[in-house]
Amino acid sequence: MGVHSRLFAFSSAFKTSDFSTFTAISVSISLFHYLRAYMPSLNDHWDSIFSEKNDEQLGWYEKDVTQTLKFIHMIPDRENSTVFLPGAGTSQLALNLFADGYKLILNDISKKALEKLESHMGTNDRTIWLHHDISKPLPDNLPSVQIWIDRAVLHFLTDEKAIDGYFSNLKQALDPGGHVLLAEFSSHGASQCAGLDLHRYSIEEMTDRLGPDFQLIRHEEYTYTNPSGGKRPYIYALFKQIL
After folding, report:
1. Per-residue three-class SS string for 23-50
2. Could you state, in order of their start, the residue ranges of all structural domains in the chain?
3. pLDDT-derived band at 23, boundaries 50, 70, 90
4. What is the pLDDT of residues 109-135, one digit of tens each?
5. CA angle, corner 53, sides to 50 and 55, nearest 5?
6. Spacing of C-alpha 112 from chain mean position
7. Residue from 235, 207, 232 nearest 221 by CA
8. Domain 55-241 top-level CATH class
């Protein structure tokens, strides 16, 4: 019997039996530990993906990052900026930004992804490596940033508390007058990726979640072709925090 079948049988037995309140609580606690034992954490999920697949096999892999760089190049006086990349993964974008001389904070929930990226980039004094769930509060000792670039990360957060935590981190990390680039699956894009459900975005929702302190500079729909040839509609949006 598979994990899900055992879980269903276990849950059915609980529902059809006449337990006391104390027993019901005990069973609930047992079920909680059962789930923890058999269901991998998000860290494990992403570590498994980055361990088992080459970059070119990842559904979001982008060898040519021209689309993202096009928006970054709209930001004035960007040359001396510190850039925060949530969910940096093994991104070619991080390598391009490093080559262009930016200071970087590279974040990912997967330690394996950061280890692979560091092996490509090398140890240096312009990069902070942050193994962290981006929906949880950021460490207090991080430097502030002038640019926040998210390509295909925010849409993996589906819980409202996690989404709120993400935007709280963004606003805390960004210097006044800083810029934010969000590139997420659009509202008519795929509903799943990497075996996970997605929260797809419209420009209206992006604008609303950032709030009145952010001005929309430019946005556009963009269809990304993944390594297997699938078409993935994205929405790209560049915002500036109003001083």
Report:
1. HHHHHHHHHHHHHHHHCCCHHHHHHHHH
2. 3-38, 55-241
3. very low
4. 888 989 989 998 998 999 999 999 999
5. 80
6. 15
7. 235
8. alpha beta
